What does this fold into?
Amino acid sequence: MTTAPFGYSLVDGLLIVNPMEAPLVKKIHQMYLDENIGTKEIANRLNDEGLRNRRGQKWRTGGIHRILTYPVYLGFTVWKGEKKPGSHEKIIEKEVFEAVQKRLKEKNGVPPRNHATRNILIGLIFCAKCGASMFVQKPGTRGKEGYRYYVCANAQAYHSCSQKYIDGNLLEEKIFTQIRAVSKRPELIRDYVVNYKREQTEEKAVFKKRAVELNRQITAFKKKEDKIINWLSETLPDRLTTKRMEQQLKGLSEKRKSFEEELLILEAKAKNLTLDEITADLISGYLERFDFYYERFTPAQRKLLLESVVQKVKVESKEKIHLYLTLPLSPLGQPLDPELAPSERSESRGSKWHPIWRVRPDLNRRSPA
It folds into this structure.
């Protein structure tokens, strides 16, 4: 192989994942599988977004089709038509690749559709049974052209998951109902943001204290280094002493640099905490006025709105859906109880969990009026 396929770089004869190109390879597979659009539409969208191939040229259907079908992205090598396991890192997961191949095979000889399947939950919705992503599929039965179903990628490609097809409109309405349930409790959202900011302030105080100590240590080590350097230049000791002092100087320098690196990380974390506080305000504003924004937004804007307030959706069945919101911006998000709405049950002021938000008890001492 003399040229690496898009998504990889060739280094000393080995394929290495190209961090600038690999995300686009994943995006192309995701667009094809989740949005149910063809190679021409994918190429048009990428070109409209200003994305180009490695040569700086616009994407064409042939290039998109090669990315969707080339086994190298699954970790294989192809030589003279023969496919063998490769030593390089795969970019696309097996279940995604095979689901794409199945879809391509099904579409072979079928006239292209005039419109893409709407899927505003792309990248957000997952099967709770196996963890695979879920995508929208339209039935091929005549008379059911308006129907949409969410399908588990593993169930579709391998039949290895028991997840059933779920009506798309029903599923999306259940999710929107859950978000609206939270949006009708602005005092709860605000309390959440206040508590979150309090935690951020406490964490920043810890960072600041550590930063002061690090700066003190860095200054002290610099003084020791300067002292050794001045002594060496003034006394001109013998070779053995010089070597010993240089080793000591090297040790001091390494410790100082480790403190400086830790200080840089702390400063970046403190900056991110401040940005997170601003983001928390924005997200809470979107949640409080979710219906207002959603009704007025275009489909593309609605998707951005959902991505701003929803971290992920895990589907066990059409009756049991777990919604994770981005507040308070923790790695796992906050799961929302899918079965309880504000008017359905009375609130117990002494309860450990709030009926809408599953939060830590110390953040939920005051129940909303």
User: Anything to note?
Assistant: The chain has a mean pLDDT of 77.
